[in-house]
Write a structure and sequence with these properties.
The structure holds two protein chains of two kinds.
Chain A lengths: L1 H9 L5 H6 L3 H29 L10 H36 L7 H20 L27 H28 L12 H32 L13 H18 L2 H15 L6 H14 L15 H13 L1 H15 L8 H24 L1 H7 L3 H31 L5 H27 L14 H30 L41
Helix pairs in contact in A: 3-4, 3-5, 3-17, 4-6, 4-15, 5-6, 6-7, 7-8, 7-9, 7-10, 9-12, 9-13, 9-15, 10-12, 12-13, 13-15, 13-16, 15-16, 15-17, 16-17
Chain B lengths: L5 H37 L25 E9 L6 E4 L3 E4 L5 E8 L6 E10 L7 E6 L5 E3 L4 E10 L9 E10 L14
Parallel strand pairs in B: 1-9
Antiparallel strand pairs in B: 1-3, 2-4, 4-8, 5-7, 5-9, 6-8
Classes of the chains: A mainly alpha, B alpha+beta.
Chain lengths: 528, 190
């Protein structure tokens, strides 16, 4: 009896209600990560439909309206359902352990911010089964496509975005409060691991722009149901206003999806290069500069709407300026590897692929920033190739790297290195076959968001689709690796990786249900 | 208590962050009037200003020998089937010279309809130099079945218009606002 009582206090509760009522940051982190993986597979399925339809010219499998629903849902689910919750999950799991805190600052809110997410995505996905069909206006939902001409289900979409926004805002308030108030004695700001730093800055970005997103969908709601004319020219509104407000949210949003990735890579590369991170301070300042610049470049998404030359020049130069802090980061990662004793376990492979392929995506971003060139590239597959290079081998690879890196800490077992490497190489080859030809398609003039295309684009689309199927299928290996690792495997030590530094590696593997109930010994806290 | 307990400092921080959230939500809405004001001042987006109020009893007179071509375009938004177009494709004006031109509109249907024309000027930077003394776009147009009207615009081009602009285009898109529940008073100012 007393033993059972003890269990109740020191271990997780049993059954489903453990997950429903949990306020434990590790439980909530795991739920975020599983949810994100489920959404990754769902959004991936939509991508497979898109690539299958584009496998050859002509309309084969789906009608154009359903194709548009697929592109829209793919984008929304991947951005809001896969990438963002994955980073929040990693933050939940790792930030308290990295800063020596017993849990997140606001554990109950933490539970809530996770549990409203499945409802948001259930609501969004349910539109697929409704008569009017799912949203079909692109993930950027430009008015008037998303207002005057939207399917009736747009209201579900609007409320789903409201809920996702509320979840993100609560999550980021929690993360900021945790980082600023819960650090162990001796953990000064400039000793924090970079993942903590990048998440702190990301959380501020989220607080600044998610309310603007909530505002813009609220304006849509009013336009659709209450007769206002925010975006309706007939009533004195302006559709271009939508694009300004949307991209005021949307551009910081793309950095929300990449800054935590920078933090992850900055943790993994030093571990496997067995050297300290090169230029820690400059990494922090570069992250902050990128975050600041992200607020003053939004109009580079809309060069073609008609802008005075002064505006075009301003947004062009401001955008190019972002290459400077980003270049600092890439230089620092390369310098960290330089003359290191490198080994190439799966997390390191993903991290190195991140550095190379993200940089490529960054360079195509620079090409798009050049206003006169953008008039040519705008809304072509070149844009699709660009943002998939920064999001898939960028953000998604970093999440996979993080998964392999911390999986032994989470489960207490080493994952299957052979399967991990197989997953990496198939993903690496697949992602390049998938997205590289799309650069050529875009430069040759193939527009994005079309279900059919002119014959001259057939070969590259065929290649791209083959890569897509390869990449999609190989993600199932990740699922196998994770399940195998949860079930068993070689016991992991506390430090797991020979070169790993940081507080999370001072606790047992698997990490006990409660860690750092008493703050860690300040001697364990080293400068990064 | 010398130092604050962690719980109360968390509470203060969260309160501040919540204010930031509410503030940014409000800022999203503030972008709407801000955008209109910026467009109005700078003429970005090709929006023309509202009715130009002249100082009493002073008719603008030509102040320069420059000649500027003003072209007129018309288009119907989706679902609007009125016959709608300018009576003259273009006129030549000198800065300061008041001109009157007109558009024709006809309701071909057997029911009453209300239309609203929304102006736009290209190049965008010319918008703020096009001063309208009178325009049919300042009001809604209600047409009976089969009714045809000529609708006037009285305007002049401001003398400060940059030298490089020799030609500008005034375009109207006509929207069907018959079923609008909310009176569109705001745009009457345009």
């Amino acid at each position: 009896m007393s033993a059972a009582h003890d269990d109740h206090h020191h271990g997780p509760a049993k059954g489903f209600t453990r997950w429903l009522y949990t306020t434990n940051h590790k439980d909530i982190g795991s739920m975020y990560l599983w949810f994100s993986f489920a959404m990754f597979l769902l959004g991936g399925t939509f991508a497979m439909v898109i690539r299958a339809e584009l496998f050859q010219p002509g309309l084969q499998l789906v009608d154009p309206n359903f194709f548009n629903q697929m592109t829209t849902m793919h984008g929304l689910i991947m951005v809001f359902g896969a990438v963002m919750p994955a980073f929040v999950g990693l933050a939940n799991w790792m930030i308290p352990m990295m800063i020596g805190a017993p849990d997140m600052a606001l554990p109950r809110m933490n539970n809530w911010s996770f549990w409203i997410l499945p409802f948001a995505f259930a609501m969004l996905s349910a539109t697929l089964f409704m008569e009017a069909g799912a949203p079909n206006f692109g993930w950027t939902f430009y008015a008037p496509l998303s207002t005057t001409y939207a399917p009736e289900t747009v209201t579900f979409f609007i409320f789903a975005v409201h809920i996702m926004g509320a979840s993100s805002i609560m999550g980021s308030i929690n993360i900021i409060a945790t980082i600023l108030n819960m650090r162990a004695p001796g953990m000064t700001l400039m000793k924090m691991p970079l993942f903590v730093w990048t998440w702190l800055i990301t959380a501020y970005l989220l607080i600044a722009v998610m309310p603007v997103l909530a505002g813009v969908v609220t304006m849509m709601l009013f336009d659709i149901h209450f007769g206002t004319s925010f975006f309706n020219a007939a009533g004195g509104g302006d559709p271009v206003l939508f694009q300004h407000v949307f991209w005021f949210f949307g551009h910081p949003e793309v950095y929300i999806m990449i800054l935590p990735a920078f933090g992850i890579v900055s943790a993994i590369i030093p571990t496997f290069a067995r050297k300290r991170l090169f230029g820690y301070d400059s990494m922090v300042y570069a992250t902050a500069s990128i975050a600041f610049l992200s607020f003053i470049v939004w109009a580079h998404h809309m060069f073609t709407v008609g802008m005075p030359i002064a505006g075009e020049l301003f947004f062009m130069y401001a955008t190019m300026l972002i290459a400077v802090p980003t270049g600092v980061k890439v230089f620092n990662w390369v310098a960290t590897m330089f003359r290191g004793s490198m080994t190439f376990e799966t997390p390191m492979l993903f991290a190195i692929a991140f550095v190379v392929l993200f940089t490529m995506g960054g360079f195509t971003g620079l090409m798009l920033a050049i206003t006169p060139a953008d008039f040519q590239y705008h809304d072509t597959y070149f844009v699709v190739a660009h943002f998939h290079y920064v999001l898939v081998p960028g953000a998604v690879f970093s999440i996979m790297a993080a998964t392999y890196y911390w999986l032994p800490k989470w489960t207490g077992h080493m994952y299957d290195e052979t399967l991990g490497k197989l997953h990496f190489w198939l993903s690496f080859i697949g992602v390049n076959i998938l997205f590289f030809p799309q650069h050529f398609l875009g430069l040759a003039g193939m527009p994005r968001r079309i279900p059919d295309y002119a014959l001259q684009f057939a070969d590259f689309n065929w290649i791209s689709s083959i890569g897509g199927f390869l990449f999609g299928a190989s993600q199932l290996i990740l699922l196998v690796v994770v399940i195998k690792c949860v079930k068993g495997g070689k016991k992991a030590t506390a430090q797991v990786w020979e070169g790993a530094q940081g507080l999370e590696w001072t606790v047992d593997s698997p990490a006990p249900y409660h860690t750092f109930a008493t703050p860690p010994d300040p001697k364990l806290i080293h400068a990064q | 208590m010398k130092s604050e307990s962690p719980a109360s400092s968390t509470k203060r921080l969260v309160t501040k962050l919540l204010f930031a959230v509410v503030g940014m939500f409000a800022f999203g809405f503030a972008l709407v009037p801000l955008y209109d004001v910026i467009c109005d001042i700078t003429g970005l987006n090709g929006k023309t200003s509202g009715r130009y109020e002249m100082a009493a009893e002073t008719e603008p007179v030509p102040v320069s020998d420059r000649e500027i071509t003003v072209q007129f375009l018309a288009q119907n938004s989706a679902g609007m089937d009125w016959a709608f177009g300018p009576n003259e494709a273009q006129v030549t004006v000198r800065p300061g010279e008041v001109k009157v031109v007109s558009y024709k509109a006809r309701n071909p249907n057997d029911f009453v309809m209300t239309g609203q024309a929304i102006p736009s000027v290209a190049p965008n930077e010319a918008a703020q130099y096009l001063k309208k003394l009178e325009c049919f776009c300042f009001a809604e147009q209600e047409l009976q079945p089969g009714e045809e009207v000529d609708m006037a615009i009285r305007f002049f081009v401001d003398e400060n218009i940059p030298e490089k602009i020799t030609k500008l285009t005034l375009s109207y898109s006509l929207h069907d606002i018959t079923d609008y529940e909310v009176a569109v008073e705001g745009i009457a100012a345009r």
